[in-house]
Specification:
With about 1000 residues, this protein is mainly alpha-helical. Helix content is about 65%, strand content about 5%. The protein contains 50 helices and 8 strands. It has a 5-stranded parallel β-sheet, sandwiched between helices. The longest helix has 21 residues, at about 740-760. It is globular.
Length: about 1000
């Protein structure tokens, strides 16, 4: 049986929708010439989404439209259904060559989605990223000019997203974000009525619609005049006003219901309580054999289509009787021909017929179709067989057979890396386990604990760590601790999975689980290298042997590398090289770490793993930046981006590459460039973690640009808010994942930066105290120093002895690797001296900080250090020495666009009396110095405070105050302050 042609021929002229057709046509032009994009067509059931898309597709050149639909019942275990249909059409129309071209020879991972392409690869058992990458490359290649017409451009139609499985949704989101070149149009339809409660699409649609590449097109019901046009096209009659009013009222303008009601001679008859009854009305008038076939088809069309031969076998009709019935059903427009099978005219009709079956009849039909699949395996495409059979047997209440079929469906879902679907089917297996006497035999002899382990791994892979944890807890009591090696390996697997789940949940016990998993696993048995690699990466940045004696990050990574090389696993070898090289680099051992990262980078390219190349490039660039080697870091990042772009995988793997690039721009004072990179990358980021890193940095960039309100708005990003909530748990547990520690430090740093810019010292102190209490700064010193500098700045502004002492202890226990961290330590020490003893006492410390920052190309840090030193010099009485640094800072800040730094330099210049002595309009001839005094009067400053702020003596401050009162002709300081506010000086 062939796949359905999604876009069927139609028999009547389309009523209305001219505006929508024009919008789709304009969208096509945009996609072909400017940028690939997506349009989401939404509407109520029966409103004409498929009909609109059919008419639209007919206007496009032949060979440029590929279509696939999601399956109606959402059968567990059926993954990538619309993409399988779509790729099968590609294979039929374009041939195998386009698949081989997209995968550098062979068919690569694409065989997971389309079984006809060949055997599923085994060398990378969890290569979902590579699979998506190859789908992207294939789609891009299809958009290039080809075929006899030489038409360029491609339109992909994905119908009925409300039935989409999780794998389909993930691939769609990836493609929407990754298609960054002109040529590809995605048209996706979905039903409104399904999007209630916790429906996955309800969460997905707002996320997609925020992307600039996504357009929303909602189909409204037809107008009264459009209903008249449709009725005329259907019946040939022109309705009078009364009959048209009745038809419009009864149909609600829904084209499907207009069609059902247009030929009703009793136009004033009551409207059925449910439109489902309206759809069933013609079914009830059918001859008995026809109705029998239609009811069987409603069960057999589980995935939308039912074949002729299965209907013949299941209905027990003769060939002649079946053909007569099918011809009648097609003529009655209840079924339509689809390849060598049949589909219902509309999904609502199939649902109505299926639901009208009596329970016994429904069960018997499901059982017949299930047994037919047993005897005729070619009755449905191979990728659907196991899932459909499991559904049929479950509906027939044949539990032993349902369990065996569900297990087969789970195996298939795992093979195609559809982990969410695999989990759903395995959950069904677990529910049936106690109800089936020989359950173990039905799943190939696996014990219950092994099935739970498989389900836990699927839960972990599909982003459900809490469920993975629960499944591991349920399985572990049934697995002995030895001496059988199979038991030891299974127990190790469960502990490893639970350790990873606890890490993702930021919960206690992760380290103990991972250490025990490694201890238990027999080294010679399959899975040991995998366990070792995971434990090595999880503990990569731990400076202590937290997993036990001899289990340091270095020793674990070295063992993982040794095992990978012994097994000949180049992918695992590249991963181990990244882990070991990153450990060395994080500890300042660049001569040892850099060659390892470079080797991993090259290996990633050799084995065609762009994710590994991006990881190695990103980690190396990160550490080069932390060492102040920003030019080398930027060159490496640009080279990686070019490589990813040439492979067509840039949008999949460039999240952290772009983050690193933005950080280099920020560090080197190119603030607008940093902002452009972040604002371009954040909406397309593939994971919440990517968005958190980018948005946190954006908030800091905006603070430097003196756009505090925009920075505050950035803090409200939903992903940032969720990440910040997890900080509450960090004080109770040891966090293994460096990504989570880095993420927490970046989020807290962003908040602190904004609080300090707003002058909210109370909020800043609370945030700083929480950071000191909860975060292990030394475990990730790169981001740790950036955050600690802001914690120290909070203490400098407050000048509280207790805060200074607590912060000093944190600074002195921080490791220092490279010139950037040395400069950060010198900077923090200067701020702490100033906080404890005042600015005048910090001149020498600030001098050391300035010298340290001059050794690295980080102008913003240099500028702030110079400004602080200039202020310290002025307070110490050396105003002349402060003059030149202030001027240099102003020039540097202006060149960088660092408005906040420039304003701070301007403020210090005014306080030093360096501003031109030009009277301000309306200020009664006040000099620039007197204007500064007046500003302070408006704040209620005493003469002593004025003297301290402006680096003058109290006596000179008193003279300035007297002159101000005279010039403004006011009796006292309070009135002078009020005048300052009137003049806009305060």
């Amino acid at each position: 049986m062939t796949d359905m042609p999604l876009l069927p021929a139609t028999t009547t002229r389309l009523a209305g929708r001219a505006e929508e057709l024009r919008a789709l046509s304009a969208h096509t032009g945009h996609c072909r010439t400017r940028a690939s994009a997506t349009v989401m067509i939404g509407g109520d059931a029966g409103v004409g989404k498929t009909r609109l898309v059919t008419e639209f597709a007919a206007t496009l050149p032949a060979g440029t439209v590929f279509a696939g639909g999601c399956l109606e019942l959402g059968v567990d275990g059926l993954a990538y259904a619309p993409f399988t249909t779509l790729l099968r059409q590609v294979l039929r129309e374009r041939g195998r060559g386009v698949f081989e071209l997209a995968t550098d020879g062979g068919v690569g991972e694409l065989a997971r989605i389309l079984p006809e392409l060949g055997t599923i690869p085994t060398e990378r058992p969890e290569s979902r990223g590579v699979l998506f990458d190859q789908v992207l490359t294939l789609i891009r290649s299809l958009a290039e000019p080809s075929g006899p017409t030489g038409e360029a451009g491609l339109t992909l139609v994905l119908e009925d997203l409300h039935w989409a499985d999780g794998a389909t949704r993930d691939l769609l989101v990836f493609l929407v974000r990754a298609l960054d070149r002109p040529g590809v149009q995605i048209v996706a339809t979905h039903r409104f009525v399904e999007l209630d409660g916790a429906h996955p699409l309800r969460l997905l649609l707002p996320e997609l619609e925020r992307l600039p590449e996504v357009t929303r097109l909602d189909l409204a019901p037809l107008t009264r005049q459009e209903v008249a046009h449709q009725a005329h096209a259907l019946t040939g009659d022109v309705l009078d006003a009364r009959r048209l009013d009745e038809l419009y009222r009864r149909s609600d303008g829904i084209p499907l219901y207009v069609e059902a009601l247009a030929g009703d001679d009793e136009a004033s008859s009551p409207v059925p309580e449910h439109f489902r009854d309206l759809l069933l009305a013609p079914v009830r008038r059918l001859p008995a054999p026809w109705a029998r076939v239609l009811r069987a088809a409603s069960v057999g069309a589980l995935s939308g289509e039912v074949g002729h031969e299965p209907l013949l076998r299941v209905t027990d009709l003769s060939e002649e009787s079946l053909e007569e019935a099918l011809q009648g059903l097609v003529d009655a427009r209840l079924l339509r021909i689809s390849g060598d099978g049949y589909r219902f005219r509309h999904a609502l009709l199939r649902e109505a017929v299926h639901d009208s079956l009596l329970p016994g009849a429904r069960s018997r039909l499901h059982l017949r179709f299930a047994r037919d699949l047993d005897e005729h395996s070619d009755a449905v495409p191979g990728e659907r067989r196991a899932a459909e059979q499991a559904h049929h047997y479950q509906a027939a209440n044949e539990l032993p057979l349902a369990l065996a079929a569900a297990w087969n469906a789970a195996v298939r879902a795992g093979e195609v890396l559809a982990f969410g679907e695999q989990l759903a089917v395995l959950e069904r297996v677990l529910v049936l386990w106690d109800r089936v006497p020989q359950a173990r035999e039905a799943v190939g002899g696996r014990p219950l604990a092994r099935v739970r382990a498989d389900a836990a791994l699927a839960a972990l892979q599909s982003g459900r760590p809490e469920r993975a944890w629960e499944l591991c807890d349920a399985a572990l009591p049934d697995v002995p601790e030895g001496p059988d090696e199979d038991d030891l390996a299974l127990r190790s697997l469960l502990l490893r999975c639970r350790g990873q789940a606890r890490t993702q949940c930021v919960a206690e016990g992760a380290e103990a689980d991972l250490a025990e998993a490694l201890r238990l696993h027999p080294p010679h048995m399959p899975g040991y290298g995998r366990t070792l690699s995971i434990v090595a990466r999880e503990s990569m940045f731990r400076p202590r042997e937290t997993l036990g004696p001899g289990l340091s990050a270095v020793s674990l990574s070295e063992r993982a590398l040794e095992v990978a090389r012994g097994d000949g696993d180049r992918s695992a070898e590249a991963a181990a090289l990244v882990s070991l090289g990153s450990v060395y680099m994080s500890r300042g051992l660049g001569e040892q770490g850099r060659p390892l990262l470079e080797r991993s980078l090259r290996l990633g390219r050799e084995i065609g793993d762009p994710a590994m190349e991006a990881r190695a490039s990103g980690n190396l660039a990160h550490y080069l930046r932390e060492q102040g080697r920003t030019d080398e870091a930027m060159e490496l990042l640009e080279r990686s981006l070019r490589y990813q772009h040439e492979r067509g995988s840039a949008s999949l793997h460039n999240g952290f590459t772009l983050q690193n690039r933005a950080e280099v721009f920020y560090d080197t004072g190119r603030l607008q460039r940093a902002r452009e990179v972040i604002e371009g990358a954040a909406p397309r980021a593939s994971t919440p973690m990517h968005r958190v890193f980018l948005t946190s940095l954006l908030a800091r960039v905006l603070v430097a640009l003196d756009e505090t309100a925009a920075a505050r708005e950035a803090l409200g990003h939903e992903d940032l808010a969720r990440a910040r909530e997890s900080l509450e748990r960090l004080g109770r547990v040891s966090v293994l994942s460096v990504e989570r520690l880095d993420q927490a430090q970046l989020v807290v740093a962003a908040h602190l930066d904004v609080y300090l810019a707003e002058g909210d010292l109370s909020a800043a102190r609370t945030e700083a105290d929480e950071a000191l209490r909860r975060l292990e700064f030394p475990d990730s010193p790169g981001f740790g120093w950036a955050l600690l500098s802001l914690v120290v700045e909070t203490a400098r502004r407050e000048r509280g002895l207790e805060a200074v002492e607590r912060t000093t202890r944190a600074v002195e226990r921080m490791p220092v690797h490279g010139p950037v961290q040395r400069a950060s330590r010198a900077d923090c020490r200067a701020r702490l001296v100033e906080a404890a003893r005042g600015p005048a006492a910090a001149v020498e410390e600030w001098g050391r900080a300035v010298s340290a920052w001059e050794a690295v190309p980080m102008p913003l840090h240099q500028g702030w250090a110079r400004l602080r030193r200039a202020e310290s010099l002025a307070v110490a009485g050396d105003r002349a020495a402060a003059t030149d640094p202030v001027r240099r800072v102003r020039e540097s800040a202006r060149a960088c666009g660092a408005v906040a730094l420039e304003r701070a330099a301007d403020g210090l210049a005014r306080r030093l009396g360096l501003s031109p002595a030009v009277p301000m309009p309306g200020s009664a001839g006040l000099t620039a110095r007197e204007t500064e005094v007046l500003r302070l009067l408006a704040e209620g400053a005493t003469n002593a405070r004025i003297a301290e702020s402006l680096f003058i003596s109290p006596k000179t401050a008193s003279v300035h105050v007297s002159n101000i009162l005279t010039k403004l002709d006011v009796p006292n300081r309070a009135t002078a302050g009020a005048r300052a506010r009137d003049l806009g000086l305060a």
